[in-house]
Fold:
Amino acid sequence: MSTPAAKTGQLPVADRADVRRAFAVLLLSEKRRVAFAIGLHLVAAVAAAVAPMLLGEMIDDLAAGGSASGVDRLAIGIAAAVVAVVVFTWAGTFVSHRLGERLSATMREQFVDRSLRLPMPVVEQAGSGDLMTRSSADVPEAGGLFRDGVPQVTVSVLKVLVFLGAMLWVSPLLGLCMLVAVPPITVGTRWYLKRARDGYLRERE
Structure:
């Protein structure tokens, strides 16, 4: 660590492999809570997919002259699905935010512990401003990632998978048409990720 600091006047920045490893270690330290939060969001995503499917079935029944009792049962099912979406989304968000705060606290503790272990020449070469910036800006920014970013990405991925599965089940041809969007999204994401790290580092400087 002292060599990079001596060359640049700043403390070194972890590479992608180290960041991924640290990210995985933090999540695994709370794996039960992570699994619980994912489970809640998964139930909410399934319920969100069930409601429009029941609505479509209700329309088909009405068009076919179905009985009032059958329509009532479907209406109750839709209402139950909507309630499930609200309840499990709230519960998943609550658990995810608490989990994010726990991981943020762990990260802050690790930062303080590792900062105190730094050799004094390294700290003097980098300057107090580098440590202050990392503690007051970078660590809270990373904490926000765990509190908000990770749950949002998780929910989005689960919803895409659940709705894609539901679409393939209802209409395989229409479901396959959704896959047309995968190549451009993949290309755009890879283009962004390839440049994002250097851009964020320049901004944080």
About this structure: The chain is about 90% helix and 0% strand. Residues 2-170 form a domain with the ABC transporter transmembrane region fold fold (CATH 1.20.1560.10).
